Request: fold
Amino acid sequence: MAGTLNMTDRRRLAMLLTPAYLWLLIAVFLPLAAMLFFSFLTKMPQDGPDWAITLDNYSAFLTNPTYGTLLIKSLQLGMIVSVICVIIGYPCALVLAKSIKGRAREALFLMVILPFWSNSLVRIFSWAIVLRGNGVLELTLNAVLPFDLNLNLMFTTHAVVIGLVHSYLPYVILTSYLALQAIDDDLIDAARSMGASKLTILRRLLLPLSLPGLLAGVVLVFVPVVGSFMEPRILGGRMGTYYGTLIEDQFVAVYNWPLGAALSFILLAVVLVILAVASPVLKGART
Amino acid sequence: MKITLIAAATLTLGALTAQADEIRVLNWQGYGTDLNWATDAFAQSTGHTVVHEYFNSEQEMLTKLRTNPGAYDVVMINAVFTPQAIEEGLIAPIDVTTLANYSGIPAAFANDPKLVNDGAVYGVPWTWGLTSFAINTQAFDSAPASIQALWDPVHAGRISIRDDALEAMQIGALATGQDINDITDLDAVTAKLAELMPQLRTFWSSENDWNQYMAAGEMDAATYWSGSAARSAAMGLPVQFVVPEEGAIGWLDGLSIPATSRHTEAASLFIDWMIDPAFYVQWDAEGAPASANADAAAALPDDAFNKVVLGDPSIMERVHFQDATSPETREQYLQIWQTLKAAQ
Amino acid sequence: MTGGLLALVGRIWLVAILIFLYAPILVMALMSFNASPFYQLPFEFTWRWYQDLSGNAQIATAAIRSVLIAWVTTLIATALGTAASIALFRYDFRGKRVLQILLFPPIAIPWLITGTAMLTFFFAIGIGRGTPAVIIGHVALALPYVIVTVTARLASFDITLEEAARAMGANTWTVLTRVTLPWISPGIVAGALFAFAVSFDQFVVSYFLSEPGDTTLPVLIYTAIRKGFTPEINAVSTIIITISMAIMFIAARYSKIGGNN
Reply:
């Protein structure tokens, strides 16, 4: 892979890249650029001719402590959900990639994604039916257990975490699986024949080699969870106010798009900074 | 879509004399105009078919009107927002002389300054109702007389209010004895709402939430709309609507014709059908808000909620109708509300 | 890996995760047979919601529209996304980091905001509303997911395989179709499945960009919560997931989507 490309390679590169990025340019980047512009306005141009340029929407973040508090709360939520997804998802991918063979594996691989093909609102409402007082979970546990249990999970932060882990777990499982499955079994056999223990193989061989996949999964979980609003709102009850619901209110309840947009771009900036700081640290863990 | 095409085709054959239009209605989903039997009956008698588009907030409705000229023929607007729609030139005056049922609308509604501008009518009063609270009759021996019941520690963790800044602030205004349209002591309302927060099980945001939480036994009492409470009761939930001594918030919904509509004749016919007593009586049987047409209200059976409760003059005295709220006030209320929620 | 006990624990873990993933799906299906319109327990069997559904052309039309849009989105997003991933993997060039970072905004910024931005922009440049606009939006939202997934698979691809094939006289096209694509096919399949999921569940873009009357299933569900959605929604969701499951099992039966090994 040379730093400078010859003409043929350049043409191929352009051919491969242009369609996707041109599409993204028209449908995402330019609209978001327009939104970025709106975030510096006093009001939307469509709502009246008396708009002006301002920094107020950004300074609102600094002057109103509610925004900062909720952003931290959302970042914590993103980290908790990501960590749980890794802890339960990575072993699952490991089993799928290295312990199960043949047709069963293909079927299981597909079964992990299938729940995603249902509507997220319907899924969240189903969780509400499971978690609420006297809901499916309590009824099931009380039917099995000899004593009565009152979990009362609904409308708590736990309910929000459960709902979000459920929604985003498949990302971690599948990206980890894709990386793990690509590791040659001969490598593992060789390591074993040299006397490496299972833990050593996992720590020195499987984990470093599958790290890019695992990290891709973590990013696909952490990034959207920080801005999520539907799960917190429905499952969190009065505990369910997060940064995402704040933005949603600006767009849906008062239609203050400039402020909502400013809050979104602050979110984006913070997430990008976190990823930039975290990526060398995480990549460094390879050796 | 196929269905509407076939329906349109058969109707064109059936009603050769009249020109068949497709009118587009912008409204909340499940709010009267989209009842299948009602649009079917309308198509049968006029030949015009009805297609719906829905909105999820009044602000969104205004944006849709601004950005989609010509897309809609009838729009349902909460009277509080009608002056803004008139001012922006989004809706056109309606020739009410062509509406056979308009005469049944009492002057108090028909001459509402929010709907009339320079003597021209921009909104036909359609329905009205109350925002107050409803109780789970299994959790109360008798209906409470005061809104302070929501703050009663007996019901701690079993109360719910809608996740809406304006509504929350106005409920707080009622509870602190203030004018809902001119809250002078915001700190008192904020403090009162802060006391309410620990009482709450959750916020609700739609009729769907409300019914499910009530059916699952999650709440003792929750703020609600009169028409929705009637509908929930009609569906068998143990629900009773309460108009406390402190009063209730009143709202009025009107039907308007967008300035860019190309089917104003058919739109007028549809609006006339929507205020027709025959339509309203059948709608009310399924649970409806109160009709703004006195003739329609009078045509209800004597035991109907909308006749018994909302027809009671002693209750009407306690209703405070909402005025228009400026965007600045809304933003200010939202800030207070978000701070209260974030403190949880 | 051998080791009887460890393999057993692993399998139990996998089954536990699958139960967790399918719990709400199972509840969703159960509730489509439950008589209470408010999802009340205890359970009481009924066919009513399926009967109601057969008379509800609106839901059926919306469901079919959603599936068609999701199919088109998946095809386009997978093709474009895979091409871009290969380019990002194979070539080093100035601005590559920027292109990779640019994939984050559509994932990080809540769809509500991206959808609103699309609405305003599409009107400004004259794309307007309608099914083409909806598909343009869906593909754009699905693309980053495809690229990230395929790239995750490519990261483990041994570039010397391509060089070896080329050394044996294979041309670029043959190398691509015989060496590279087969190797990354599990990543492409996973990316396609995500793309389908993104489109099939996407209500914001469809909500803003559909023509009045042309609703999709998520939009119908989203607007229905105001009035209250009935278990009919569960019934249609159950039918869709059952059909999807059948298609997937057939696909798993006749192809090697999990990757060779």
Remarks:
- The mean pLDDT of chain A is 86.
- DSSP finds twelve helices and no strands in chain A.
- The domain at 67-284 of chain A is CATH 1.10.3720.10 (MetI-like fold).
- The first helix of chain A runs from residue 7 to 38.
